[in-house]
Amino acid sequence: MATYSFGQFKRACATSVALFTLATFVGSGVLAETPDNPSDLNHADTVDPNEDEADDLDSLLDMADKDLSLLSRVNVAAPMLATEVTTVSRQKSTLGRTPAAVFVITNEMIRRSGARSVPEALRLAPGVQVARVSAGRWAISIRGFSGVFANKLLVQIDGRSVYTPLFAGVFWDAQDVLLEDVDRIEVIRGPGATVWGANAVNGVINILTKSASETQGLFAETGGGTFERGFASARYGGQLSENADYRVYGKWFDRTSATFSGTNQDDNLQMGQAGFRMDWTPTDSDLVTFQGDTYEGTNGGQANIAIPVFPFTEERVGDDVYRGRNSILRWTHTIDDDTDWSLQLYYDRTERRFVRLDLNEDRDTYDLDYQVRWRAQNHRLIAGFGYRLTEDNNENDPFRFPLTNPTRSDNLFSYFIQDEIELRQDELYATIGSKFQHNDYTGFEYQPTARLLWAPSPRRMAWLSVSRAVRTPSRLEEDYEFLLVPSFGVPVFPRFQGNPNLNAEQLIAYEAGVRSQPVDYFSWDFSVFYNDYDGLIDFAAGAPFAGPPPLVYVPVLFSNSTNSEAYGFELVANCDMTENWSLQSMYSFLRTGPQNLGSTSPRNQLNIWSSWDISRNWKADLIWRYVDRLPEEDIASYNATDVRLAWTPGGPWEFAVVGRHLFDTPRPEFGDGTFSDETQVQSEVYGIVTLRY
């Protein structure tokens, strides 16, 4: 296996910066431009013409090696750096004041990409590995360790965690929202555990929907095509009174079967969902939000299961059933610009019927969260506490899932404090804080961070951080037992056995980044990281033992037996070529190890997006992406193209045609044969008719 020195890694970072900036600067004269309004200049630097007029790649590489800030000399208020972000510190901030690797997927980006699901929308963010395993199963992670049961990523929808303690991950088939009502998706690459707690290890994805006052009137859409066989959504928003707004919605979709080796896999996905939201402002200082959802779906597929008689394996085809409901109540009280508090309660009920595996799980989650924010001289502080109770009940096949504890109730207590200190007015900031938790799996855990941000002007900023995060064991890893199918028809069954003595996985993460917008029409964002993992939960085979004749069991035991590392960088560049045409490019580089852990995520990913307003009524978007191979999964690299053409003839109507995964042969994006076969992703085309009134 090839290895890289730190010097080679540094040179790769510098090369990528230079290539991105060179491609955008040629013919556009970005570095030589001045603002449209010279009066907006603030703390302008003196530009060295010898550096600005670099005329070959080596000069750009030297400039990147010396000082990345030389790429941005003009200092005026920057629209990109003013983008709102709340997830990093649990309070309103901007990209220009955020010392973390953050990317915001806006509502317009989701609409213009043609994405029909949250996982497809996440393909728009750098550093995120998104692979479709079947119609309803996804492998999604940030900065490595990808898999259907990826367990180092925290996902939230409007403050409600959708992480399941069953395998410390996310059931992506059940995470659906009306994308029209999404305000933005904030993607944090790197730990967010200091404010969000355990399992926010490699990243945090926070899906934030619009307020009820922003979704007034009627919205409806329908359409269909090849893979997206049919879908329909409707939402209506109105006012209950002068200070109370509401919306109600419903949606349904049917995604067709894909194929595996030319054979239909019956992995179709159907789902219906409905919900509501109400925002009430009883006073100028108070906001009360009440919202909820209910859903039900079926997720078809094929599974190979273990049976106690010859041939000791059986192939099953059928539809798993999942359903759920949730509700959130949030009260926010504002005292002044620097002081407020909020109290949130939510309830989440999930039910899953794994028909092919003869396993059922019901889970109830109750969550209470309180936080308060205030200012003391040059300190901006935020603190809070929380309590979560989760209860599950399992019904299982006694041969494949010989559970000794079919029910479990777990308590999670937590509190945190974080302080942002202004070291130099409007320029230098330090952030320190920690999350403290007590859980029923590993007991007491602490997760601190220290971050430094330097913003010499509103046009550029740099940051660095060091953080500790933990991932607590899952229900499956601690006290589940399950059998996998034997090989070659021999009655020797791998038997995974939970370990109640597991410790939490630990991460120490080192990060740094630079953001700049030298002129209004060009911006770039570069972040680099090194992650040091200790005590990762792995498994190893034990000594075989005899079961009921003629069966033999090979115990597979979970333990904190593996250490690993990951390092890489992400680079994003945006350029408005004209008033009607913009380009965005993203490149992600990742190396993880050891080999059996690191090769489930692509080493290189590249994404280029051209967005063109052809006229007032016609809009065209083209997205090309390259994803590197996955050696461990035996998945080849691929190129794919997404296209969307939309026509708004006037009035409330919009008509669009979307093509996804074009110009590519049918192929799997990920391999996961643990419980079922992966299916092939194929080119698809569908049409959409939208009414906004």
Tags for this model:
single chain, 693 residues, mainly beta, Maltoporin, Chain A, 2 domains, 22-stranded antiparallel barrel, five-stranded mixed beta sheet, 8 helices, 36 strands, 55% strand, disordered N terminus
Structure report:
With 693 residues, the protein is mainly beta. The chain folds into 2 domains: 1-71, no CATH class; 77-692, Maltoporin, Chain A (Beta Barrel). Helices cover 9% and strands 55% of the residues. The strands form 5 sheets. It has a 22-stranded antiparallel β-barrel. A 5-stranded mixed β-sheet has the order 3-8-9-6-7. Strands 1-2 form a two-stranded antiparallel ribbon. A hairpin with a 4-residue loop joins strand 32 (604-613) and strand 33. Helix 1 crosses helix 3. It is globular, with a radius of gyration of 26 Å. The N and C termini lie far apart (58 Å).
Helix fraction?
under 10%
Distance between the termini: 58 Å
CATH topology of the largest domain: Maltoporin, Chain A
CATH class of the largest domain: Mainly Beta
Question: Average pLDDT value?
Answer: 86
**β-sheet strand percentage:** over 45%
Number of strand elements: 36
Compute the gyration radius: what is it? Answer: 26 Å
The structural domain count equals 2
CATH H-level name of the largest domain... which superfamily? TonB-dependent receptor, beta-barrel domain
User: Which word captures the global form?
Assistant: globular
Low-confidence stretches: 1-77
Instruction: Please describe the biggest sheet, giving its number of strands, its sense, and whether it closes into a barrel.
Output: 22 strands, antiparallel, barrel
CATH architecture of the largest domain: Beta Barrel
- The helix/strand class is mainly beta
Number of helices: 8
